[in-house]
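quick one, 316 residues, struct below
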Amino acid sequence: MAEQELVDRPNPIAVFDKFEAELKVYAAENAKLVFAYDDPKGNKDARSHIYKLRQVKTKITDKHKAAKSEALAVCKKLDGKKNIYLAALEEMIDVHAKPVQAIRDEERRVEQAKIDAERAAKEKAEQERLNRIAEQEEELARKQAELEAKEAQIAQEEKERQAKIKAEEDRLASEREKFEAEKRAEAAAKAREKAAIEQAKIDKQEALAKAEQDKIDAVEAEKERARLAAEAKEKARLEAEAKAERERLAKAEAERVEKEKQAAAEAEKAADENHRIKKNKEVCCIFTEWGMDNKQSIKLTTEIEKGLYPALMIIY
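---
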């Protein structure tokens, strides 16, 4: 009866069929709608439409929870039946599998023993081969040592022979060098003697030429001293004239600058005096505007200028 219920139970996914049709309608409607989000009414309509869509989401979620709960119950029943059937099958399999596995294990043991025996035989053969190689290498090393000793003896004998040849060659070279040195010394002595004679002749000629040149140089030097003295005297005269001219120009420039300073000071003094007179007139005008007669205003302005009233001051 339970198995028949499982077969006859409808597809759980079918619960969403009606929502699929509704979603198509909502999608078409949602694509067409345009709201004025900045407008209060448009904003309210947009929120109302969003609320309606969220209600559909809630319905779908609720339906999913109910269908999922039923599906989980069915899955638990399916798992229970599966475990019972598999356990029964495992018992039937073990009845025949154990003898088969025992035979297989024995075959593997025999095969492994054969492999181990073959490996041991190979290892023994390899060790024997390595021992033979080691003996051969030891023999070769002994022969190589004998050969190297013989070669070293031959090399030492050749070295001694070459040393004797070198010593003889050095002796002959030394005697040849001594002979050549004596020849060079004799030739050098003759060359020095000849050179000394030639140099004496050259020195005598150069001494005569130098005495003649000294006379000419003395005359030229005297002429040069006279020319330089005349140039120095002329230069001193020109420098004295230039100095006198510079002093005259400097004095004239100083007098001109002094005159310009005096003129500027007088002009500044006159301008200051005119400014004071102008300011005093402005002050007098202020006093006369406040009812003071002209004579009194001039007198008061003059006294303020002289500082007779410390509390009063005319700013120039």
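The longest helix spans residues 40-289.
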